Amino acid sequence: MRPFAYVRAADVDEAVRAVAGEPGAKFLGGGTNLVDLMREGIERPATVVDVTALPLAAVDDLPDGGLRIGALVRNSALAADPRVHARYPMVSQALLAGASPQLRNMATVGGNLLQRTRCPYFYDAAAACNKREPGAGCDALGGFTRGHAILGVSESCIAAHPSDLCVALAALDAVVEVRGVGGTRRIPMAEFHRLPGDTPHVETALAPDELVTAVELPAVPVAARSRYRKVRDRASYAFALVSVAAALEVRDGVVADVRLALGGVGAKPWRARAAEELLAGGPADEDAFARAAEAELEPATVRPGNAFKTRLARATIVATLRELSG
Amino acid sequence: MSTEVAEAGRAEAVRQVGRPADRFDAPEKVTGRAKYAAEFPYPDLAYAALVHSTVARGRITALDAGAARAVRGVIEVLTHENAPKMRPLSRLNLGSFVKGTNVDYLGTDQVHWNGQPIAVVVAETPEAARHAASLVRVTYEELPAKLDFAAEEPHAVPQKGNAIMRSAADKGDAHAALAAAPVKVDLRFTTPPQNHNAIEPHATTAFWQGDRLTVHDTTQSIAFLRKHLAMRFGVPERNVRVLAPFVGGGFGGKGMVWAGTLLAVLAARATGRPVRLALTRESVYHTVGGRTPTVQRVALGADRDGRLTALIHTSVARSGGMPGQVTAASRHLYAAETVHLRQSLVDLDLLPPTAMRAPGEAIGTFALEAAVDELAWELGVDPIELRMRNEPERDPLTGRAFSHRMLREAYALGAERFGWRERDPRPGAMRDGRWLVGMGVATAYHPSLIMPAAATVRLGADGTVLVRCGLHEIGVGAATAQAQIAADALGVPLESVRVEVGDSDLPAGPMAGGSAQTASAAAGVLAACDKLKRQVLALAGPPLRGRKPEEVQARDGGLHVGGSGMTYAEILAGAGRDHVEAAVKAGWARFLARTARDGRRWVRAASGAQFCEVRVDADTGEVRVSRWLGVFDVGRVVNAKTAASQLRGGIVMGIGLALSEQTLVDPRTGRVVNPSLAEYHVPVHADIPRIDVHYLDDPDPTTPLGLLGVGEVGITGVAAAVANAVRHATGRRVLDLPITLDKLL
């Protein structure tokens, strides 16, 4: 690991100022991803600003029945919160499907939004990677692509977004609250992560000085009946090949409300709006679920190593909706 | 049967052997007091880190270590331009037997694989060493490289065999018999390369005092490593001390001498400092060989009753390291009328493979036992019944006797305990909600070997016993097992026995490999105990004076004839001795002669029946192993607890082989793409169900104490049992490991 300066911030504004004044400075939350990447020489911040002492670790009720989750709430704490269990089971399930208990005890909600891809070519400094070094090329193209995305990809980058939590947040229309030197702003989840295009190194809408301070979950009544289903290569401690965050309400055999988002297949946490539109107001049966899944996956760009993901995603969407409709 | 061996097995009423004794080292390990190779402190210790090549083949044209040298705390950057030269290997030296590769590290500008160490940074802290290593800039002249196993497979050349490891066999005309067979299967299997992931990554602490070298190393072969280092660094063997009191898992990955060990010793010599080189997990992937990939063909012909008329098993694997015996089980498992076995190898410009738990047998039994299962489907016969119809009375190829063969008993007991009768034979017929349930079996088989081992046994006047043998505590409870054996041989309580292991100053123990360590050391320890008893008897007064050793029983802390006897303390006190010691030397010539002789007399192996239940998600193809039962014939069991752990551990590793483990080598670059525990998927706890292990506990009549080895047989047959259960659950035969869900969608 290369040497770096370590600063411990006492309040939010001090943290933001510390990063704003240092090109290449990074906020440090749980460190479960950043420290790994620093060890690998992929992230090379000159300064690390530790924000874990900031008062951002509360989960508060919102007047509309939603929740405001501080950016420093640990994954394990959020997963265990009874309000999350009751109102957004998919959030709790997504958190518990990720990493290991030790990592979940460290990892923060804010950091989870900023997780970087697990593309092995991104992780190997000897490989070409446009995300790591703009313009260098992409060794994933023509390489091993089992873990790579099929939706939202570009010729510059086919990396998948690795987060489980973000898939649930995408389904729930969460809002990300951030603070920079210019003040506070609110970014809808759908706009928080960026598609790679020809700038895969730009991953989020955050400005360099902006710190994630909270995530707000609006009231989503349908989410009380929701599910996060993660399919992977072993039973635990693996990233998703495909994951599905779904909420479904069926009235008289008709889909009254539905939320659907996908993980493991998207260049960013993938809200399945095409599928939702097809499902809404229609029959809640196997055929409808399959048609909706196919519509969502129709624009998929596959490679030999990840072509199975369209079939797997379709099967997982159908199975999850079937379970919720039963 | 050799008479001395039979007596050793019979004379001692078994008291400690067989008991589930707690391992002696458990408190040390649980409390963290047990010291491993990277934990020995030295004043002035320096730390090393490796720089790995990023091309597969070529030569270094420029190496700029300026930035690395400028890092604060860096002591030296060793490269091919400034490193002291190591001596070449000698064909005549047994230490050459454990070379991991032929590469002359830092001796030339040549690069032989992507990830080869090309420089070593030595610094005051491990952090400075690693950071500086990342700053070394290298340019290469690249040369064409052969990197794609699949592409090179057609160019494979026959593997050379030898007296112990044969590589080809023919009985009759198997191809004609196959063509004429009314029922047949002919399948092509592939297994991927795999890497070692012992919990302790390889590490070395090396310290030179003049021409004397002390090395703390993660090794499974202390005696060979010592010879190897003496040869490579040009010092007498007696000047080299290798210490390995605890090793955090071996599995074959620590049997050979790899770059990390050599370069730590080289760095210590070059800098005059004690040097520690603890490999990162990634460096283990780049410098320590793993399991070879294979392509295998198994073709079976049978008559309509399921009797095998033809058995063809051919394999293509990678050359280098220790060639695996991929088709070995096919020599011994089935009474086929005709047999054709071939093993071939391809050369690649990659880090050579090495032994990895049942190197050939783990993957060879996958292909053979999956093909037998498929034949059972073709015939509509129960797969256990098909095996029993083809169970040979004598070794099928040679006609020699089996020293021990209890597969019928293993399958009968296994079927009863597993509930095999409740299996609905139709594919996909057993269902539990979204899960398709399947049950599969396969035969486990691993040859049994005994290697030379020296040992001394010292009896104190207080009745305590010290056993000294340079064997390896790689996590199996090896010392405890030898204590149990010595306690019974001398008739003393287990608490009276202490065992010293893991040091080249001790009598040379066997390598911890080939499932042979416990049986090999037992032979030495038993012989030393026998010698010791004779010496003690010779010192004894009445009522023992003049008694023949055969008349005397060792029990209750002394020697006895009928109802009368004396304690060891009494005998030694009477003779005015404070201790008696007996030593047994290891003889390689005798070992080779005995191995050849035994091989002509009988076929000896551990075996077993693996029973697996899987659940396959009907929508997604996810496979979960839900139940496991293994019934093993491993001869006598020394320690019921640690033996079961080894067998269970083999099954766990086999489940990884079956479902998830695979080293991804990019065929464009030769680069390992997943060199981490996050991306290389060993099984996690959630992947492993309760595993029931039974052993038949019937001593083999041809080995000391009747041991057949437990280290490797547990992994054999596992991948086939999983594949066969998946076949039953889904109707799909997966021929390519690992069985990932995409192959079942």
UniProtKB/TrEMBL annotation, chain A:
SUPFAM superfamilies in UniProt: CO dehydrogenase flavoprotein C-terminal domain-like (SSF55447), FAD-binding/transporter-associated domain-like (SSF56176)
Keywords: Oxidoreductase
Keyword Coiled coil: no
Top-level taxonomic group: Bacteria
GO molecular function, one term: FAD binding
Domain FAD-binding PCMH-type: residue ranges: 1-222
Protein name, as recorded: Molybdopterin dehydrogenase
Organism: Nonomuraea aridisoli
UniProtKB/TrEMBL annotation, chain B:
Keywords in alphabetical order: Molybdenum, Oxidoreductase
Disordered: annotated segments: 1-20
A Pfam family of this chain: MoCoBD_2
Keyword Oxidoreductase among record annotations: yes
Keyword Oxidoreductase recorded: yes
Domain Aldehyde oxidase/xanthine dehydrogenase a/b hammerhead, residue spans: 31-144
GO MF, any single term: oxidoreductase activity
InterPro entries: Ald_Oxase/Xan_DH_a/b, Ald_Oxase/Xan_DH_a/b_sf, Ald_Oxase/xanthine_DH-like, AldOxase/xan_DH_MoCoBD1, AldOxase/xan_DH_MoCoBD2, AldOxase/xan_DH_Mopterin-bd_sf
PANTHER family found in the cross-reference section: ALDEHYDE OXIDASE 1-RELATED, XANTHINE DEHYDROGENASE
UniProt-recorded name of the protein: Carbon monoxide dehydrogenase
